[in-house]
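Whether sequence alone determines local backbone shape is best considered at the level of individual chains. For completeness, the protein is quoted in full, as a sequence line and a line of structure tokens:
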Amino acid sequence: MICSTFTPSIYHFHAERPVFQKPRFRVCSSTSSENDRFKIEYTPWLIVGLGNPGNKYHGTRHNVGFEMIDVLARKQGVLMNTIQSKALIGIGAIEEVPILLAKPQTYMNFSGEAVGSLASHYRVPLRHILMIYDEMALPNGVLRLQPKGGQGYHNGVKSVMGSLDGRRNFPRLSIGIGKPPGNMDMKAFLLQKFSPLERKQIDEALEQGSEAVKTLVLSGFSQGISRFNLVQKYKFHKV
């Protein structure tokens, strides 16, 4: 058995005040060799959902990135109860691969302050920083998983790219929320909650997205991800 131990400095939530602790993040893996001659290394993933903190924004279109983190945490048994680098985080694993789930608490436009600090602290390579956020260019409930991309009109992604020295070669999972109807103000649309039909589509997309994230973490951008993107592209097309 091979084990690696990490001792990050973090704060845990308590009712009255945060308590400074140094928990041990331990990742173990088995080898086929009885003498453990070969070391197996699992590079951790930093998986970040973008959104705004507070009950006021819960369930709004702009917060679907937070919702995806909640689904991943539930499915992988990760406890989100720690504040570090201006983010709510949880440490766990998808099978043998260590993951750090994060929800920046800086508000959307300053998300990069948390992401850059976490990536630096845990020494996560750019290719293992997965950004999850809402995308108006996609129909509601349609997902797209890419190895890189630009910032578009998304201020949260813009902030993250700025914290990573303008680099764009990090994976991103876009969650479609559709476009504002008619002449509706974009900000008002983003901070609006979903209709019952839209909510159903989003809930289904979150379940599908969590499985895609698992595939990505375990297998990278494989044929499985290509099939996922193709299915998502035509998911609402009637034959």
